[in-house]
User: Fold these one by one.
Assistant:
Number 1:
Amino acid sequence: MAVTDGAGHWFLVNASPDLPSQIETHPDLQPAGGSSRNSPIAGVLLTNADLDHALGLFSLREGSRIEIYAPRAVRETLITHLNLAAILESFCGISWHEPPKTGFAPLGPEGAPTTGLLYRAIELPGTPPPFAKAAPGAHSVAYQFTDSRTGGRLLVAPDVAGLNEPLLRALSNSDIILFDGTFWSGDELAGVKPQAPKATEMGHVTIKDCSLELLRNLTARQKILIHINNTNPVLAPESPERAVAEAAGITIGADGLDFEL
């Protein structure tokens, strides 16, 4: 997922391992002509330290300094267990930014021209990934963006282990919602991988037991499920689960969706 300020700067929400192919597929993320090396990617916001959210950062190592927005606990996990800082400092370098949690702030490095795009982090229940030990602080966040010119709000929440009051407030006042659609049901992963943990043990509420009714009752103009696991039946266009989700006014996320705030 990527958000732009409308002036050519793009901010990624997480950086998955297939980031290079995503850039090749989306011209807006590709370097502009007339320069030997450049990128419109102005920063990366991390929702947690999961491998599928952070490994793509290594693919950005040949560019300019990377602006990374992440809570302290997420930053420390990546530095300690993936050696992220030492590796990237050997190439491009990193500038770390602690996301604001009490109010919106301009998105972009301190001192940079104001873009009109504001953001804030919403702390969520969550634990560190399996390769890391627990440390104090928020290990999972959602991000809410707002366009200061239009007042439109976007909520991006790909990893939701449970609902809390700050998240519920953000859900109620967002115009567009990208929400955790990892699993339809709690034990679906066990159908293909015996002894697999349940969805809640992996840090995800399910569509069937939580987000279906939650999203159905919201007034946002677009409600989109993202971060969908390949075991989730909503991915099949003719499945009854997909029909139920769409009847509730929910869109199944797919590459290429775009919208304006």
Note: The longest helix spans residues 72-82.
Number 2:
Amino acid sequence: MSGPAEEKQKNVIRLSVRALVAFSIFPPDIMPMSFSLMEEGRKAHMSRQEISGAKREQGLKFQGSRQGVDFYISGRMDLYDPDITPPLIEEIKLSGGEAPQEARREHLYQALCYGYMLCLRDEISVVTIRVSYATIQGELVAAFDEVYSFKALEEA
């Protein structure tokens, strides 16, 4: 027999931040279509993380309700530096050649989700969001930084 707690658990939508953004925006870039692209992206992440002095792969989660639906959303910040003011979250993406002129919307939204979850968890009022584009060797091709207040992240 299942009780009320078990029934409630079954009605929770569980998503990764990446899947949430992919569902919301769905460009092919956020969910690579080939194993080779996934592997190149993994190598770029690892290389960039090794170069940086920030914390790597810091997990975050959000549990709550929106419009009567219960959610559990989780993900990992690629890089997180809590020792600078304001703290920095860096979302790393593989550069596809030419440097972009601005952060792609789907990449920024991923980072904004992490910013919101971090501010909520740690009661931080301001955070810097960086979307960076790196080569497989971890060298930055472009980086886009913007400071966001918790209120702005709530509204995003």
Note: The radius of gyration is 17 Å.
